[in-house]
Design brief:
By secondary structure, this protein is α+β, with helices and mostly antiparallel strands. The chain is about 25% helix and about 25% strand. The protein has three helices and 14 strands. It has a five-stranded antiparallel β-sheet, with no helix packed on it. Strands 10-11-12 form a three-stranded antiparallel β-sheet, with no helix packed on it. The chain has a two-stranded antiparallel ribbon with strand order 5-6. The longest helix is centred in the first third of the chain and has 44 residues.
């Protein structure tokens, strides 16, 4: 009968609609699930989302005069007595600069032999105002520790393996050296009284170690001033 045929056709159409709707529903769930998994994967791959990880804030300058000084590790390549002053050495010091070794004049003749200083790693204050000593311009100062009681003076000792030219750092301070000149010299005058070797032999500024990539700078002269 005609009514049965219409009923059958209606039932078939109903089944088709249900099937299509189910397909869309499953596809939608799959799409939502895939998007959720993608977001979770990204979150696990993001370093800031790692459990227990904190992002350190960028260091800021403290305004301390130490931040104006350019203190670097160097190596004495040549040394000889000043031709016009028996108490002075003239050294050629490698500071990793493309311009070549710097000429530095130091008053160490009475304290260290030239053989002892040759090829020695040293610590150099690089941005003092250049100064002429008996006609020879000195482009820096070797930092030394001393003991007034026995008159001993010795250059500071960088750790082995520190490359020539490495900038010495101080925890809690951002080093942004001034150009060589009066401002850097004035900054050194302000801080030099706080340069001292600790009782464990570490060179410090207000108790903060002179630090390199290989560890702190040291001295065999304990509790002595650094200049």
């Amino acid at each position: 009968p005609r009514s049965m045929v219409l009923s059958l056709l209606t039932f078939v159409m109903f089944l088709s609609i249900v099937t299509v709707s189910r397909s869309f529903a499953i596809g939608g769930v799959r799409a939502i699930t895939s998007a959720k998994l993608l977001r979770q994967t990204r979150s696990f791959c993001t370093p800031s989302a790692a459990v227990g990880t904190t992002v350190a804030p960028a260091a800021k300058p403290s305004g301390d005069s130490i931040e104006a000084l350019e203190i670097r590790v160097g190596k004495i390549l040549e040394i000889g007595k000043h031709p016009e002053a028996d108490s002075l050495y003239v050294e050629k010091v490698d500071l990793g600069e493309s311009s070549g070794p710097r000429t530095i004049v130091s008053g160490l003749v009475a304290f260290c032999t030239a053989e002892y200083l040759l090829n020695r790693d040293v610590v150099v204050l690089c941005n003092l105002k250049p100064r002429a000593f008996k006609g020879i311009n000195s482009q820096g100062m070797l930092l030394c520790s001393s003991n007034k009681a026995d008159g001993k003076v010795e250059p500071l000792i960088p750790p082995a393996g520190v490359p020539a030219g490495e900038l010495v750092s101080f925890e809690g301070h951002v080093i942004k050296p001034e150009e060589p000149g009066n401002r850097a010299t004035k900054a050194y005058t302000k801080v030099s009284g706080d340069f001292v070797v600790s009782d464990s032999g570490i060179a410090t500024y207000k108790g903060i170690p002179f630090m390199t990539s290989k560890g702190p700078i040291t001295s065999t002269i304990l509790k002595g001033p650094i200049s």
